[in-house]
Model the fold of this input.
Amino acid sequence: MTAVSKDWLNNLPKIELHLHLEGSLEPELMFELAQRNNIQLPFETVEQVRAAYEFNNLQDFLDIYYQGANVLQQEQDFYDLTWAYLKKCQSQNVIHVEPFFDPQTHTDRGISFETVINGISRALDDAHDQLGISSQLIMCFLRHLSEEAAFETLKQSEPFIKKIVAVGLDSSEQGQPPEKFSRVFAKARELGLLTVAHAGEEGPAEYIWTAINDLKVSRVDHGVRATEDSELISYLVKSKMPLTVCPLSNTKLRVFDNMSEHNILLMLEQGVCVTVNSDDPAYFGGYMTENFVALAKSLDMTEIQARLLVLNSIEASFVDDERKQAMRVMLG
Ligand code: ADE
Ligand code: ZN
Done:
């Protein structure tokens, strides 16, 4: 059987629900922003940067990812970062996105919350008007930092709350259980925000349960370790809880040694609402199309499965029924 073609997958309308804007910083833009802001990078060339992107686990990656974000200083830098990602989306027929940003990565360096969110949301607005790409923005708390710091960030976001649809939880997972943030997530829900959380990427299936029960998430980010707990799989199917899975991320960070071992299609066949996403595409070797292509090549994903994965993303997205229906029509 021949694999589904790259052209077909690129043309397929797609939706991205798990994307860290800071993780879409390509080395070329990193150098441009370093020059613009007079920042010395520990690399001489773009090739050297790419060569450094070899990771054994999540923490290896996060150390480099936070270092890369230092070049982001001015509102225009956040605009340029976001716009470059959205142009890539346009080239891959990604019609709706719900990106994450990590305000603490910037506010801890003295960049104001306002600078960050204004740059990002101006690019999202322009993409809506000029590229026809709709979006909803998600603000993540860094789980290696304290609950108090998350509360402070939530407070800083309040004047801009209309620009945000949900709060999320990312960064180092091991030893940082979701329930550490139960109270700040409760406060976010009181403010009218939805919630999501990274869980079951490197951390145990138990963290998926607590993300659901304690943080009341509407989606679980990653969640691939759910297959270690059959009761959890049954619950995910019954409750239609979406998982935002990131195949290339999982192999780059050694959650799975080989794409052929990835469990996304197994979960799809079990009836779990799994979706395909790129996570940190500049670091993991591919955007949406490349993630779908990897599944076609290594797991013999069919066109029917690819369309089902996109349909799941439509169902899991944080948009009204009218936009969902319009996206279903675009999928055909
Ligand atoms: N921040 C950026 N990418 C991440 C990932 N894959 N897991 C946790 N935190 C992240
Ligand atoms: Zn992520």
Notes: DSSP finds 17 helices and ten strands in the chain.
